[in-house]
Amino acid sequence: MLGGKDNLAVDREAVDRIAEHIPAAIPLARANRAFLQRSVRHLAAAGVRQFLDLGSGLPTGGNVHEVVREVSPDAKVVYVDHDPVVATHARALLEEEGKVVFVQADLLRPAELLAMPEVTGFLDLNQPVAVLLVSILHFVQDADDPASMVKVLRDAVAPGSYLVLTHAVEGLGQERDEENVRDVYRGSSTGGAQGRELAEIRAFFGDFELIEPGLVHVCEWRPDHPDLIGEEGLPGYLMAGVARKG
Ligand SMILES: C[S@@+](CC[C@H](N)C(=O)[O-])C[C@H]1O[C@@H](n2cnc3c(N)ncnc32)[C@H](O)[C@@H]1O
Q1: Are 16 and 100 in contact (CB under 8 A)?
Q2: Residues with Cβ within 6 A of ligand 1?
Q3: What is the reported pLDDT for 172?
Q4: N or C: which end of the chain has fewer CB within 10 A?
Q5: Domain of life, per the record (predicted)?
Q6: Would the pTM of this model clear 0.90, i.e. be above it?
């Protein structure tokens, strides 16, 4: 969906099937990535020096550490994904001694993840950290209790930390198209995808305070480029927000 060359035939096939039912999926994936970059740039400029990117995906253009580096050369970035193919690519393309590390782990077990030596030896959880859950929670099923999972993360980080999140909204497409797309995801390594209602998405932030402009359509979060205005026509499937722990 993001273009580039680090992708596989099976992914390209799945993308074609998704775009057939929800053509906005591709521009939305790009808008999601642009939000990720804007939010990370903003937080690096605000002084955050540690980033934990959960469900980081296959490396592509404008990865988190590259964006952070523009502002803060010494910042540390931990990428986490459970997919073995992502792990192979990420280790080869992203890791940098002392600054960028990739950890293959399941974010459904956040306490275990945060206790891994690769994480504890690298991040100082007594200092602020930006936890990124960008386009990932809609791949976590209700049965896996994403609310409790995110709470563990919120509780573990120091005051001054941030939660950065995007999430698909339920019920904005034609039910049949949505079901077809869910079907594609069920047949993929993600095991399924589900949108949620706005109130449920807001609840993931707990008592963290949403910074301006709040929980908004992914294109409307601090747009920094006139081209983004053109994307406002995209359907509101994907919401984005950044919140701070007081
Ligand atoms: C849509 S990609 C998001 C990539 C990136 N965050 C972005 O927004 O561009 C979702 C990623 O989450 C990973 N993922 C899904 N479930 C996961 C889990 N339980 N633990 C760790 N990673 C997971 C998938 O392997 C995939 O690489």
Answers
A1: no
A2: 32-33, 36, 55-57, 81-83, 86, 106-108, 134-136, 139, 190
A3: 57
A4: C
A5: Bacteria
A6: yes
Question: Could you tell me which residue, 50 or 29, shows the higher pLDDT?
Answer: 50
Question: In terms of pLDDT, which residue wins out, 227 or 7?
Answer: 7
Exposed / middle / buried, residue 141 (Cβ in 10 Å: 0-12, 13-18, 19+): middle
Q: Looking at ligand 1, which residue's alpha carbon is closest to its atom 23? A: 55
Tell how far the Cα of 227 is from the centroid of ligand 1, in angstroms.
Answer: 27
Rounded Cα distance between 130 and 40, Å, is 8
Which residue's C-alpha comes closest to atom 5 of ligand 1? 56
Name the CATH superfamily, with its identifier, for domain 9-244.
Vaccinia Virus protein VP39 (3.40.50.150)
- The CA angle 77-79-81, to the nearest 5 degrees, is 170
Question: What is the number of the ligand 1 atom nearest to the C-alpha of 144?
Answer: 19
Distance 129 CA to ligand 1 centre (A): 19
Alpha carbons 124 and 10: distance in angstroms, whole number: 38
Residues 6 or more apart in contact with residue 57 via CB below 8 angstroms:
81, 86, 135
Query: Looking at residue 232, what is its pLDDT?
Result: 53
